[in-house]
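Lab meeting prep.
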Amino acid sequence: MREHINTKAILKLFWEHIRPYSGRAMLLLSLIVLAKTVDVIIPVFYKRFFDLLAGDVIATTNLRTALVGTVFIILCFHLGAWVCWRAMALINNWFQPRVMTDLNASAHEYLHGHSYRFFTNNFAGSLVRKVNRIGNAFEKLMDQILFTFVPVTVIIIGNLFVLCGRSVLLGTVLFAWVFFYLLFNFLFSRWKTKFDYRRSQLDSEATGVLADSASNAITIKLFNGLNHEQSLFHEVLERWRRVNTFTWNLGEIMDAGQAILMIAIEFLIMYFAIGLWQEGQLTIGDFALIQGYLIGFFMVLWDIGRSVRRTYEALADADEIVEIMNTPYEVQDVDNAKELQIQSGRIEFQHVYFSFNQTRRVLRDMNLVIEPGEKVALVGPSGAGKSTITKLLFRFYDVERGKIIVGNQNIAKVTQESLRANIALVPQEPILFHRSIMDNIRYGRRDATDEEIIEAAKKAHAHEFIEGLQDGYGTFVGERGVKLSGGERQRIAIARAILKNAPILVLDEATSSLDSESEALIQEALEELMRGKTTIVIAHRLSTIMKMDRILVIDNGQVVDSGTHKQLLKKKENIYKKLWEIQAGGFIQ
């Protein structure tokens, strides 16, 4: 369990997002200080009021006029404080939502800068929860600072100053008590922080498990897995419940300790005040002043105990995403990285080595060259490294050794954005956004017109089924595209690649999800799409492989054979021929 929250990093991040609105923030702070200063002043006039009633102060005018005048002054101060609080509320309602929006946007942007490996190692639901928390954590923290810590500071300084003016003894006793009270709260809350952080972690974990379960709802039904999933979710919830109950009980212990301290100071202050009154050093009005200040102390200090806990809870909520935002990217553009300028779509792997997690070697001394405009299929057993080659081409990972050259430029020296702008991908299992079909196709080129999108859909033979939908191109496809069939999603992905029109094309068997009729419809479109482009096909279906200019056979992270379909079959013994014989029906694993 993590013992400490990186408070410095959290506050630094918050300040970076407050700075653009620092003028409003300072005005907000000034209004709160002014309003709470009024709360310090008002009891002084109540003291005068009771002193006038008791005759400890002689009125310069008649008594009624003096009393009414004192009450009028008190009302004016209350009105001034009311104006300050209303102005503060308006400014705060403008200020906090803007900072929260900026924080969420920054967290979202930084999150998506992380590598492919980062997203494969983290629950999507958990990441969503962490991003959403950062804005809420800022709101909670600012509320504690503005409405508790700042008022408490003003009240403590102001009240102690006035009390010391009436009695150094009372001021000293109260100052010592305040110091001990705050120290107790700080130390107890800091110790409790590690449990708050654990609660926050378990909350994120529970969200991740729930999101994973929801996204696999069909699989759960197919395999009657509800009881299993329920037990997994309940196990996480049970751990969360135990930690949450423990933190709540700690809070109750803290409340009990605060109450005892408040009872003790009430007795001590009144004990000493009575002695001072008997000696003639205090008046009846001073008792009203002291009691007013004690009540004010108790109100703000009782809140500060809770606020310290809430502050640490807010910091714990923010810490997980701040940790992610302070984690350097695994894959980064080098300083002064250049834009990829493709004169030709030539691709070359030069002595490339790559492992997952530094343990499982996937590519070893990989060397391959794909000439501009060449159509190449990658074939090999499962786990041979075919998909890894394309992931490295997109620079989802950095190679351990060697270089990948695209268009005569080392991809490690160019910007990731420009690299990926020059490569189009049609994955084997396309995942779509829960947006309209029009928006999903437009993702290939976001400045495309509706007419260009429709033309791309026609080339992918998707236009016909889209027009048959109730809302046509405005149809929302559901989360991950679940409202469409596999073949329909595939054609949307192909239309997106057609629209992108990148010089390099990667097809992860783009026709594998299509029935024979649908496949026949788009083969011509794929051939048109591949014309003039450097194309890499991760091949499973031989109808695609046989049309390639060259087939590269991958095994154990190396190119072990190369040639056309006919050339490879003529060889006596090779992996491709064995795979062909095993999968004579038309598929290769």
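Slide two material, second protein:
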Amino acid sequence: MVENPRVAIAGVILESNRFAPVAGPHDFESLYVLRGQAILDDARAAAPKMAQEAAAFIRAMDATGPWAPVPVLLAASHPAGLVDQALFDGYCAEIVAGLRAALADGPLDAVYIANHGGMAATVDPDPDGTLVRTVREAVGPDCRIVVTLDLHGNIGDDLVDNADIVVGYRTNPHVDMVERGEEAALSLRLALAGRADPKTAFVRLPLTPASINLLTAAGPYGEIIMTGQRRQAELAGAILNVSIFGGFVFSDTPVNGLAIVVTARSDRKAAQALAVELAEFVWAERERYQRALTSLNDAVTLAVCTDGPPVIFSDSGDNPGGGGTGRTTELLAALYDADAEDVLIGSFYDPPLAQDAHAAGVGGRFRAHFNRHPGEACDVPFEADAEVIALHDGNVTGRLGLFAGRALTLGPSAAIRMNGITAVVISDRCQTADPMFFEMFGLDIGKARTVAVKSRGHFRAGFRPWFAPDQVYEVDTDGLTTPVLTRLDFRGLPRPVFPLDQDTVWSPPDFA
């Protein structure tokens, strides 16, 4: 039993959309890059910047006994494109250097890695796996490695072969990050106490659903998550964790595919058997991982109809939480042209427009030019006369769902009214998953007839107090995160793969 374990802390979080612009230093620095003591200070703050599971891991370790944390580097970007290879290599080298410096002072008992799992680089298709493998090479075979991941992670051999414990989210929208960070800490404590000798196994399927098909409250993905948890409970003496990763199809890599990762207490064969059992369950249900969208015309009809209950729209093609630009205007233009009333829409990533609104001041009127500078082909310019309703510096704390309790910096922000539509404009790209995007301006969500958000699914948790599931519509819009996968030029997926290739076949692996 290790009495006062030395545990290093590191990680690089990014969900990569191959079709989005390359992620560079600014993308990480605009969210967080924490080093050394700043990691511990942030984790223990009232409103941490870092991912909630990372903060929860540190706090759980604090609460469950003595330990000697060795904070190295935690870096994160909002979802974006492929990470610049040199930038990733630099982060990786910095982590290795920090581990070697720590090892010079004595052995490390464990390394905690807080990653997303859906990262891809301009050269390396699996940097998450590369990081875990590189850490293993630095610390040797006897040091425990525990990894937390988003359930949209793309899982490869390098990650599973080199991690002792893998813990993935179980909810989508993501609301269980704190619990998963705590679980990772408690599982590590078990291993360090000699009460478990974790062994991992995984099965990856040729199945790459669009993210809208990976909700967990209902549907096939929610059912397999529940089945995995039931089987884990039934096999509690043998199984430590079951994590089922839906993957992130827009990463477009050879390691894409829904994956089941099982961590056994000591018996790898038990992990392998359960992974195969769950994979067979998923494959039998693969046809259900397809979902119809609401057409733009039908969405406009719902918005202008005053007979039914209020509605909320997902601008599904432009989700900044999946690498979308946050700049498309297709849905805005359609609602504006239809003279829709009592509409809240956001958030548009458009720093020049936010600057114009701040220059005009509250109550000021000006010509709002969306996308005045060229961007992606989907970022079509739009302009209209506007009035500035409210201004904000963009420093906020999330209230519900994905961002609850987290400090966010959105940059100079504005709420502007164009006829019956009030639009939120921000200066740092972020998905509208939390009501505070509107509430920071004093806007009353409960008085809106229609709310339209640039978010794929996480808004469901943030806006649940106002909108029941039958009031939620995923609108078929253009953009880098369109759920209509046939519109995208995939080049890295392991073909054939379902649903793109409807005749895909699969057989369980033979672990013998």
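Talking points for slide two:
The radius of gyration is 23 Å.
Residues 105 and 461 are 45 Å apart (CA to CA).
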